[in-house]
Amino acid sequence: MTHPAGPPTGAPVVCVRHPDRPTGLACTRCGRPSCPECLREAAVGYQCVDCVHQGRHDVRRATTVAGAVVGSRPVVVPALVVLNLLVFAVTAAQAGSIAANTRSALFAAWALSPGTVAAGEWWRTVTSGFLHIGPVHLAFNMFALWVIGRDMEGLLGRGRFLAVYLLGMLGGAAAVMLLYGPGEYVAGASGAVFGLMGGLAVALVRLKRPLNQVGGLLAVNLALGFFVPGISWQAHVGGLLAGAAATAVLVYAPPARRAPLQAGGLAAIAVVLLVVIAVGALLAGT
Length: 286
Description:
Layout: E1 39-41, E2 46-48, H1 49-58, H2 76-95, H3 105-110, H4 114-118, H5 124-127, H6 134-156, H7 158-179, H8 190-206, H9 212-227, H10 233-252, H11 258-285
Antiparallel strand pairs: 1-2
């Protein structure tokens, strides 16, 4: 009776991936014989390609204070910029004018006013954040979104960044609903952009970085809203507070319970903002 216990005595050792290749080398991690083509230099000795592949999956990638993977490329910011540009292009085409794009049908259907929301047109609290009044308004907001947004998306991660952006937008809408008259209209991504500014300030405090430049930028832009006609300081302040609160939830959540605390905190902020919007709608409808 024969026993297939292994190769005959004296048989050459072959590579586990290439049985036709005799070898005297072996992986320092798993010990399996491997030919030179299947080995990769490691910190100690050489490892086979299978162990190298497994090691890459086992190594945990570095994360930020918000839990985002370090080094991820921004995707949400370019998408938001493109979306805002497309909406502006549609309004300009409908109005037949870049400077007077507010005459378009889309602008009339999407701009925010407390009275229209009170009448049931709730979508305006979001759609108004993608409208812009003329090219200068658009250029300013998109430049700010591009400069601030890329760093914030890298710090927070794509999903968390989008949440802060949208909550900043809702925060601006909530302030407008409370502080504007029923027939007054507002539009623009300024609430969302100020939400990112407030979030950046909170993140810098969390990271113990200086606030000099960001603080100055915030002060100047907030002052413009109070002293320059046609700029909604209400949307700026509302977006700033909402974005700062949302970012604080994300960057101060303890790592051990990060996911549930972040999700619960963002949901709580969203509920508060929706309640404020509802109260504003009730006041505008009376």
